[in-house]
Amino acid sequence: MKAVILAGGFATRLRPLSCTRPKILFPIANKPLLQWTFERLAKNNIRDVIMAVSYRTEILFKQYRIPKHGLHVNYSRDPLHKPLGTGGPIKRAEKLIGHDEPFLVLNEDVFAEMDYTEILKAHEKHDAVATIALHEVENPSRYGVAELGKNQSIKRFIEKPKSGTAPTNLINAGAYVLDPRIFEYIPAGCAVSIEREVFPRLAEENTLFGHVFSGLWTDIGKPEDYLEINRKILRHTQPKHSRLPSNVEIHEPVAIDRKVLLEENASVGPYAVLGRNVSVGKNTRIRDSVVFPHTRISDSCIINGAIIGENVNIGKRVKISRGCIIGDHVRIKENVSLAEGVSICPANEVSKSVLTSNRN
Q1: Is 319 among the catalytic positions?
Q2: Distance (Å, whole) CA 216 – CA 73
Q3: What's the pLDDT score for residue 9?
Q4: Of these residues, 155, 160, 282, 316, which one is catalytic?
């Protein structure tokens, strides 16, 4: 079975960090989401992967040099300046996918511990055009919602219903198996939402089925979701890290990558992720935060509940509050305080405190 990874989205809710990388390259416990996905595909004996991407995203993938774990990776590129939605890229990759057998499709913004062979088995039980992996959540209004009928058929599929109107709590988990007949439902060269335009039609024709799974699942489309999946991974896997100096405080669980420098009386964790080549100054406290690689944090700083981008330089006695997002290559001068929910765009310099949120 081939797998198609839809990785051409703009990730607007994760700006400013997504201004310089797609969602699928965001690190989760110091491994890019794409690396987690490749590992899971290889574990499920899937060998051929088609990345549906923009030109910019393809370049970034190649720069990151993510281990492929024996996968053969091809690229299907969206046309320049013409996004094709979630269905259009599938149609555009038709020649690479072929018409010989069902294929797997994965959304870029989902972390899921899923057995892909199980959803394939569920698909093969029925004369299905599509079989969607379904997961139960508390608030289904953010997602596509499925109402199941007999034999796991989906009677109705509603994309992002209004709050309180969803017929069930079973949502599209961002993975589905499609039969090659799906190409007949997607016009070529057009932006098509497979969730809004194709799945409801298949439900009416009784060729849309569901496969419910209960493993670890998170959509990382929002900053709070991204922090939450890092917490979940830290709780479940407790990543190993190198031997650390005795004069620092480590409050597990944490993930500390290679070549991290922790100076005297630094305090890290719980739920802190430090990327490769990060340096943390004396008396600095970091908790419930993700710090991307090559960032320098000076003495006596407090970082709590924030996401700090790559190659950021943070001066002494800086306070960064919950919900802050700091873009790549930002420079923050000494004695600056950032209130909750402040975002700083890439390559900016911050010399004065920001005491109110600037994010919607």
Answers
A1: no
A2: 26
A3: 63
A4: 160
297 in helix, strand or coil? strand
pLDDT value of position 353 = 92
Q: Is pLDDT of 107 > 60? A: yes
CB atoms within 10 A of CB 333: 15
Q: Which of 270, 267, 271 is nearest to 281 (CA)?
A: 267
Is residue 29 exposed (0-12), middle (13-18) or buried (19+ Cβ within 10 Å)? buried
Tokens of 196: 């809004």
Tokens of 255: 């993930």
Mean pLDDT of the chain: 89
Structure tokens at 14: 């994760």
Q: What domains, with CATH codes, occur in the chain? A: 2-218 (3.90.550.10), 238-350 (2.160.10.10)
Could you tell me if 39 and 111 are in contact, meaning their C-beta atoms sit under 8 angstroms apart? no
CA distance 11 to 302: 28
Closest CA to 307 of 273, 280, 332, 278: 273
Query: End-to-end CA distance of the chain, in Å?
Result: 42
